[in-house]
């Protein structure tokens, strides 16, 4: 699985342009994975959004649902193309998600500490496809985030796992090259794309910097 630019949605930040249109443009700009994250939305609302995003992506990127394993399962039951879930430490267990979605699904897991990495290492091989590691810098899109790791803290954590790690949290264009050198398998952003006047251009710039 090739990671690269990973875009996480935020309905408030996308504003009047809307999440689906923002995602459509971001994928045109090179985003490889899109994660639907909407903590305020209920089951039916999230299911509707998943369907809209699947249509906007049209198979050009992977679609992940944050937290809600039940939404991902329901979407698949309806024939909507959903590739997997991303789970926090307090969400449905990764092993449960793997069993429910099958071996070809993508299961991502948040990991911010050495204890998290130790717990992941106890899971059967193949349970988790990637780890979301952060935050790199303080960010307003997740007010309850843990202390910022910085690039050095990120590098120290990812050196202790063989699972691909996606850097997340307050990432700017200037962070892309240092994070890749530090061992990042991808970079996850919210505001850098969703708040951009031109999400396609913002995604393209980040992707080019990553690939460079």
UniProtKB/TrEMBL annotation:
Binding site for Mg(2+): 67, 91
An annotated GO BP: thiamine biosynthetic process
Cofactor: Mg(2+)
InterPro entries given in the database record: Aldolase_TIM (IPR013785), ThiamineP_synth_sf (IPR036206), ThiamineP_synth_TenI (IPR022998), TMP_synthase (IPR034291)
GO cellular-component term (any): cytoplasm
DNA-binding keyword on record: no
Binding site for 2-[(2R,5Z)-2-carboxy-4-methylthiazol-5(2H)-ylidene]ethyl phosphate: 139-141, 170, 190-191
Cofactor remark from the record: Binds 1 Mg(2+) ion per subunit.
Catalysis: reaction(s): 2-(2-carboxy-4-methylthiazol-5-yl)ethyl phosphate + 4-amino-2-methyl-5-(diphosphooxymethyl)pyrimidine + 2 H(+) = thiamine phosphate + CO2 + diphosphate; 4-methyl-5-(2-phosphooxyethyl)-thiazole + 4-amino-2-methyl-5-(diphosphooxymethyl)pyrimidine + H(+) = thiamine phosphate + diphosphate; 2-[(2R,5Z)-2-carboxy-4-methylthiazol-5(2H)-ylidene]ethyl phosphate + 4-amino-2-methyl-5-(diphosphooxymethyl)pyrimidine + 2 H(+) = thiamine phosphate + CO2 + diphosphate
Domain Thiamine phosphate synthase/TenI: residue ranges: 5-193
Keywords: Magnesium, Metal-binding, Thiamine biosynthesis, Transferase
One protein family per Pfam: TMP-TENI
EC number: 2.5.1.3
SUPFAM superfamilies: Thiamin phosphate synthase
Amino acids binding 4-amino-2-methyl-5-(diphosphooxymethyl)pyrimidine: 35-39, 66, 110, 142
Pathway given in the UniProt record: Cofactor biosynthesis; thiamine diphosphate biosynthesis; thiamine phosphate from 4-amino-2-methyl-5-diphosphomethylpyrimidine and 4-methyl-5-(2-phosphoethyl)-thiazole: step 1/1
GO terms of molecular function: magnesium ion binding; thiamine-phosphate diphosphorylase activity
CDD domains: TMP_TenI (cd00564)
HAMAP family: TMP_synthase (MF_00097)
Family: Belongs to the thiamine-phosphate synthase family.
Function: Condenses 4-methyl-5-(beta-hydroxyethyl)thiazole monophosphate (THZ-P) and 2-methyl-4-amino-5-hydroxymethyl pyrimidine pyrophosphate (HMP-PP) to form thiamine monophosphate (TMP).
UniProt-recorded name of the protein: Thiamine-phosphate synthase
Source species of the chain: Micrococcus yunnanensis
